[in-house]
Structure prediction request, 208 residues.
Amino acid sequence: MSLPTIGQFAADVAHQLNNPVGGVIGLTQLLLDGKGLGPQERKDVETILGQGQRCRAVIQDLLLFGPAQNPKKEAMDLSPLIHSILEKVHYDFLNFGLKVVNECPPSLPSVMGDSGQLQQVLLHLFMKTRRAVAGQKEKKLYIHGGKTGAGVCLRLRHTGRVIPEDTLQTDLGWSACREILQKHSGTLSTQSEESSGVTFIMELPVYA
Prediction:
């Protein structure tokens, strides 16, 4: 089976899983909003919600391998998008022991982007972070955002294992994310240091 065929198959499976997983997440959120749960029951439902949100993130990851589409760009602020994604992975990260230090301001200069595609990129980077910090004594993700020259820069630094450059070069998810950023006239890069972990860097031009 060729890579494009595998990619289409992965995307088709992801679409099929999306609705039932969304239903599980919606029902567990309704349960948590109610007042009839005891402490242990609430903890169990929060675990279900966290795992459901993790499944949703993996599904979004699989969609990266679908047929490449031109982004439907509109003026947007990346900061609310980041906050929205963090809400989706909150319970999973909490149960996993991954602490997020979000130092991104409430708003950033506007960029022209496809919110769905950029969400896929960010979810992929968050899940890549989760895998990188597995088994580490310190599990932290630091998020910074701001204007740099004529662009908006997001920096996601985690305390996990350093990723060898040759590994990234063969990472299909990373390649798909870079392609999405290129179609947005932006870039995706990484910096790795043994002492401070790994930093993912997203840069997009400011929409004037």
Remarks:
- The longest helix spans residues 3-33.
